[in-house]
Amino acid sequence: MAKLDISNVIRVTLLSALMGLADVNTSALALITDEVPIPAGYTHGVYLSPQGVATDFGSSSDTYRLANQVFAQTPNVLTGKGYLVIIPREAAAAAQAATIIARFPVDLTKLSATDYKISLKIDAGSDADLAIGAIDSTTLASAVSSLNSTAVAAAGATFSAVGTVASATLTLKSNTTGATSALVVATTATGTDIATLIGMDSASVTGAAAGIERVKDAILRTYQSVNYFGIILNAMPASGDLTELGAMLQSMDKLLFVGSSSSADIAGLFTTVLNSGYTHTRCLYYSVSADKALDFAAGYASRALSIDFSASNTAHTMHLKDIAGVVADPGMTQTLLTSTGAAGVDCYVDFGVPKVFTSGANKYFDQIYSELAFKLKLQIAGFNYLAQSNTKIPQTEQGMSGLKSAYRQVATAFVNNGVFAPGVWLDPTTFGNPDDHIRNIKDYGYFIYSDPIAGQSAADRAARVSPKVYIAGKDSGAIHSTDVLVYVEA
Fold it and tell me: Which of 167, 186, 206 is the last residue of a domain?
């Protein structure tokens, strides 16, 4: 008698866990150097100690010296589960085109006007209002095709994009390369100016001739092939290169640490960085020499990027911290301290013991670092919630509850690590029920709310877009100084 399959009664299906994205490493630090590595074919290297750097670049190299500064700090990038990645600039790079990367992703479906224009100067040409017209946001490709209108193409520039039509990061390039390749975007176009809407307003960039690669081009070449969050350099960039680099990094969720020994940079280049709103560029001053200023920047960056955001009570501020291997700046005076403070430049001061002094004029480092880490971890959490389900996430309040739960785990972690803390919500802006907003901030340190599913537009529902999610967090702040009033009774 034939034996029948037990699956007639019991049916078991093995489901493999779906792949998600790894958590972003906010302690990975890149050293971009113009020194030539010793091994042939070297493109980049990842290091957990300075010894390997000595092997690959020589023990007398600037690269090895700066690597020593990185790993000498306690804590350092390793504490945050990070590493040092060294990227040599290409000695014989090809000529590069002038390139603008948008400061933020844009929802192209929201660009609903029909008379878009962009005021653009390309290479040696004159300023011109270039007609774009309506944006076909059916797909990302159709939207990019709209941006590359007849006028834009004829003028000699090309738009491209990565992401999705609802969250696209745009890039604009001149069609020429070399030192004369240039793009200047204004915000004076007639009709509906599109530059501000796509994060490219008031941009001015140049290309590069063939030869030693610029830092900007080294980042554009490598940022998608190797993961790094912070950047230090083995040489202070020229003024124009730094401001262009600062503009690009403001859109890239990366942090640049630059050190200068020139007091003229305080009121000059570093104040330009401040006034331009380039908070992702952290300016440091150390008067002794150019090399010592770079040492200070390397040590500062490693100490600064040491937060393990998944651990408890790890958040810190750089104010009054020690930088191992660096003595207090002997050239600091009260006048210099005042001027660095006004320019948002951090320095290393002798208070009887050497300590970092930061004014927060260009925002405090820990604010920028924590905000970027929170943003990136929310992106990963949201993506993984959607990507790791073996079934669909229903477009219902139940589905939204699961999505918000993924975001809630990130917000809770940021309370545990000390970035957020329960407190009083002082901003007049609230969302959802104001009482719920205020109470959740007071009790938990954050509040998460989403618009009701029932209020979705037909277009958003058809596109399977979730209702907008709103998140408020109460920064725990930090005590950097204190005033004491003493009464003495006779």
Answer: 206
